[in-house]
Amino acid sequence: MSAGGEIIVKKVINVSGGHHGGAWKVAYADFVTAMMAFFLLLWLLNVTTDEQKNGIADYFAPKSVSRSNSGAGGLLGGISMATEGARVSQNSPPTVVVELSPPKQRKPTDEDSKEPGGELDEDDLLKQMAEHEQKQFEEAEQQIRQAIQESPELAAMANQLIIDNTPEGLRIQLVDQERQSMFSSGSANMDDGAAALMQRIAKVVESMPNRISITGHTDSLPFRSRVGYGNWELSADRANASRRALLDSGLDPQRIAYVTGKADTEPLIPEDPALPSNRRISIVLLREAQPTPPSGG
Predict the structure, then answer these.
(1) Are 214 and 281 in contact (CB under 8 A)?
(2) For residues 152 and 191, is the Cβ–Cβ distance under 8 A?
(3) Tens-place pLDDT, residues 46-63
(4) Could you tell me the pTM of the whole model?
(5) Are 149 and 155 in contact (CB under 8 A)?
(6) Which long-range contacts (CB under 8 A, 24 or more apart) does 145-152 make?
(7) Residues 32, 38: contact at Cβ < 8 Å?
């Protein structure tokens, strides 16, 4: 009360929680937490595999629990979910173990190697490759002889061609005859007939995969030429001229294995090394498949 008798009254109005109280904040926080848990669940379902999902389902399904007792027994009372003898971490996710019985084995038979998918040992495989290669050699020989017979210009050289099989491969020899030489005397200049025959040989063998060796041979008769030039140099030069003739006819240079000259060291007719038939060019299709020879007992 003031001195003049005026009375002042203070009224205090209590408003609980401000405008609408604080309960909505709690509800909103619960909603956000539930949504976060929901999206986390969706993410986990997306990243887990079917095996992991089955393992989790088996974990909460009592009927799928193993009956192997390791403690007190009873449902989930000391019961192991892992295979006996396996040490599994308690923090690792549950897994599903499926045991598959091994396939029945049978003894291989000889028929298996004859089937397209059958396995062959190394010797059988090399044997089959050698047989296929030999068949190709026979076809090449037939084609070369047929090409000579069908060409009037080469028919006269039929008796100068020798084709035979050797351990090294299919050997094609172009041999000189009396008064019928492939090269000029004492030189590596090839005549037209020999060049045409080289061309036919190249056309036949160019489709085959075998590498090729070329060897030059001379007779035993010495000849006078420039100093330091003899049958060794002549045989090598003629072999190299034959190589160039094959390449000019379209043969792949990578097919050439080696080119050598042997002079008169390997005569075709050892009884008379001076005969013209000893002068020759030897072209060999080298074998690629060589079966393993049997070991002696």
Answers:
(1) yes
(2) no
(3) 888 888 888 888 887 765
(4) 0.57
(5) yes
(6) 147/200, 147/203, 147/204, 148/197, 148/200, 151/196, 151/200
(7) no
